[in-house]
Amino acid sequence: MITPQMVLYEDEFNQIQDSVLKLVKAANAKVVFVVDKNGQLIAAGGDIDDLDTTSLASLTAGNIAATGGMAKLLREHEFATQYHEGKNQHIHIQLVGNRVILVVIFDAKSSLGLVRLRVRKATEELDQIFEALNRKPEDPTAESPFAEITDDDIDNLFND
In which domain, by residue range, is 142 found? Predict the structure, then answer.
């Protein structure tokens, strides 16, 4: 399923990033990130230095798509929550408003119960941010992100 492209404004990006950083601390997680359903990384926090977030974001989106296929076969709308348990690390995946994917990677320093509790609150917060973001283009008084671009700017871009 193709999802429409999302325009992310700086204010909303900062709110999403703040939410991610709060969740890292509140859930005692190693890594938290938000991905769109196309596999594009939106925001990340925690110990991401040694992590290939681009690949993990793509694989997470693919996992959601595959699980969505299984849900349809079982006549379910979707499986909004997934949990993968490893020997040392665990992944909790949550769909947010059927728009984006919230991923929490944690280890023995946290627990699934704590992660689920904190994810529930973060999901509500993120859902509100994305709802506001979706309404922004509908608002005729909202300034377009392309408002400052002039015809001359476009001509200059394509001139050698």
Answer: 10-158
What pTM value is reported for the model?
A: 0.80
- CATH code of residue 84: 3.30.450.30
- Look at the chain and report how many structural domains it folds into: 1
CB 61 within 8 A of CB 36: yes
| pLDDT tens sequence across 115-146 | 999 999 999 999 999 888 877 765 555 566 56
The span from the CA of 44 to the CA of 51, in Å, is 11
Tell me whether residue 119 is in a domain.
yes
Output the DSSP codes for 72-130. HHTT-S---EEEEE-SS-EEEEEEETTTEEEEEEE-TTS-HHHHHHHHHHHHHHHHHHH
Instruction: Return the DSSP state at 35.
Output: E
Structure tokens at 123: 């999901």
